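[Automated response] Your request has been received and processed.

Submitted sequence:
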Amino acid sequence: MASTPEQFDDADAMAQAIFRQTGGEVRLALPLGLGKPVTLVNALTRAAVADPALKLSIFTALTLQRPQSESDIEKRFLEPAMDRLFGAYPSLLYANMIHGHGLPDNIKVSEFFFQAGTWLGNKYAQRHYISANYTHARDVLIAQKPNVLSQLVAQDGERFSLSCNTDISADLFTARRARRMDFIAVGEVNNALPFMEGADAVVGADEFQMMLTPPEQFDLFSAVRRPVSDAQHAIGLHVSRLVKDGGTLQIGIGAIGDAVANALLLRDRSALGPVWESAPFPMKGDGVAPFETGLYGVTEMLVGGLLALFEGGVIRREVDGAAIHAGFFVEARDMYQKLRDMDPAKRAKIAMKPVSYTNQLYGDEDAKRAARIHARFVNGAMQVSLLGDAMSDSAKPGQVVSGVGGQVNFVEQALTLKDGRVILTLPATRTSGGKVTSNIVWQLAVTTVPRHMRDIVVTEYGTADLRGQTDEEVIKRLIAIADSRFQEGLLQTAKDAGKVSPDAEVPQDRRNNTPDALATWLAPYRDTLLPDFPLGTDFDAIEQVLLPALSLLGDASGSKRELMALIWTSLVLDKHPQEAEAMSRMGFDEKPSLTEAPQARALRGALRQVAKDRAAPSC
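Generated structure:
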């Protein structure tokens, strides 16, 4: 008869039992993202803090943390809605300590991927970061000889599902069954997790030595969807034409992924003809027809955009009985609900697999090649150099923003598969401290994807196909999709380096790569085909009004000139139709006054500027 795990409802008692069974030293393999059993991990941390004789080493990634307000404006916006937007998700004690006074000597935490921007400037986190491709993280973990694997699980009778995190855990269980590893598996039940079926996701009760079913289960972390900007929608429109019917798709989390999914759904409805025809920038790619065969999804991360394409019938080509193979997920709360409510037979078409399956061709390579035809792997980058290499994980040397993750894995796949392409997406510019800079640059501070692996780059201004091109041609093609404010400077730098002909010029039809041209193009479609939240949102109506104004205010922060311009705007423009309600939501007086705080006045100006911009007629 199969054994069942020892049951606990007290996390601290279970933590003490784990330390006893491991002789006082826990080397913990902890899933990335949503799969962390927070109640149990916090109990293990408390036990180690209370007893310096105990040792706790944690290897993980993507420690999910609710945002910390860095300014009074952020505090006013976020704190009243924190639980609604991000879930009443408890903080991880080890993360609080790293942010605060630090960990004691008997606790060590290393991550191979960060929640974007969370650990910038944190000395402990930056020192203990381990740089590894996602598929290599498993082997880095195994080398540390973990003796405990702990995971949040969904339960169905005596069966447990790894649900959101088969990514590495599934391989670890397989290795233990083959006696290549030796560890105890302990879990924490959370009924909010959807029970994902499949050989790699479902684990029998006899695989766990201990199981925590806490009296109160915590809310799952919700990754709030951000509004999709003009630039991001345009990127989605460009990418949608590069995807072949009957092919294979991977997209990432975030607004660009939402934009790509939205554009593909619109393409399938034959709704994009007028949008493409009115584009002021060249629209490359012949993928414009609806999907007759449909797509197959293979991805490390199951994101809301892929689920929307699955529910919309665009993703329907099956491989081994599944339309999507994915390694993990963490998304907005409505995706968890959709997966829980989905008909079990339909949900079974989403098969959770280890990243050793999704992210690479090794292992049953012939079958993977046959399945992953016409692959289009869409990934984000932060900057791209004129020679085609990309920076995706660091802000500057030594400071990791997120991590390499699986990006290079998918680049390698794309270059290896017949007709496979990797599409790196990025807005052409960024704004910080009131200053606009180009994301297409001469050289990078840090390289994630080297230039010898360059393929396709997409900005809001178009598509640059770089594969197999000379350095000179790569430079010309990237300048053609750069913001026109920076094109001449980029071209001159390339000339000075001897990488392009002295008489090279920016093509005349590429000299109008401007935000105004972009806004004029998309304005007629923003309220219908290209909304701010094409996949839905947890922001309420007045918060949606505030978001573009807060974005404008954030871009101006750090620049006295830009902030003064917004204050002046508040004096000369008509008020926003919902200004009073918006100001009240932020805790300011509904009506302006001479004694109003400068930040309130600047926000009022931002609201009025947004109202003016949206009321401007397109031409």
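Summary generated for your ticket: The mean pLDDT is 95. The chain has 24 helices and 24 strands.
If you did not submit this request, please reply to this message.
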